[in-house]
Amino acid sequence: MNKNDETKTTTDTGPPCGSDVMTCYNAVRKEVIGDCTLYQGDCAVILPQLPGFDLILTDPPYGIGESGGDKKRRRGYNAVVVHEDLGWDKTRPPAWIFGLIISKADMQIIWGGNYFADCLPPSMGWYYWDKKMGGDFSDGELAWTSEQRAVRDFSKSPFAGLKGGHLRVHPTQKPVALMEWCLTNAPDAKTVCDPFMGSGTTGVACARKGLTFTGIEREPKYFDIACKRIEEAYRTRPRLFDAVEKIVPKQMSLI
Ligand SMILES: C[S@@+](CC[C@H](N)C(=O)[O-])C[C@H]1O[C@@H](n2cnc3c(N)ncnc32)[C@H](O)[C@@H]1O
After folding, report:
1. pTM of the predicted model as reported, rounded to 2 decimal places
2. Domain made up of 30-221: CATH architecture
């Protein structure tokens, strides 16, 4: 890289963006809902400007044409939903995005990891989700994680029983229970980012668990849906956290 290239890269990346900065360079919109900060825009531009996180939990495009269209009918809640093809799954993210994701957090969980295995370092700690769907869908999905520990199977966790019927508003939407299970596998994570937020499932799981979340989504349609789902998650979240805060005893004087 010559000196001119270096200058160009710095300019393209824009000014640093921390929690005290209102607007990220090139973010089309920014919404703050409770402890969740959501950016509409391209994560390749926005993520480099954000501070680091404890965990990046994400589900990038696999590059297999699953972004919608008449052939991509999905069973919604009591209905078959045909999602408009917005074209976001034509290609997978470039390899450098995975390097960025690794540099931006202490721990990473990346769904569809088998599609990106050539962009990620070797790891022991993969997660498996048996989708139990049949038909022409894959039998299951794999997540690459940065953890050097045994493989984990979602279906063996108590969260698997919680799946239930949920409104399908995105063609590749993950169950909230799956993302909540991922969060329980990262018990020390207090700040979580999903740079490919989609309909905001990771944000919903974070809101329910009282964690700080940052999400990035390029499509306005899914950004709006994510805002609504996260607002709803705050309205309906278990009140356990509030109750615990109230009943935690204060340190008593020993004298
Ligand atoms: C596999 S989907 C995520 C679905 C999500 N897990 C859910 O439950 O709704 C990937 C999402 O990344 C978004 N996306 C693709 N490229 C992006 C980019 N460069 N920056 C931000 N979002 C992007 C797509 O619009 C899509 O909604």
Report:
1. 0.84
2. 3-Layer(aba) Sandwich (3.40)
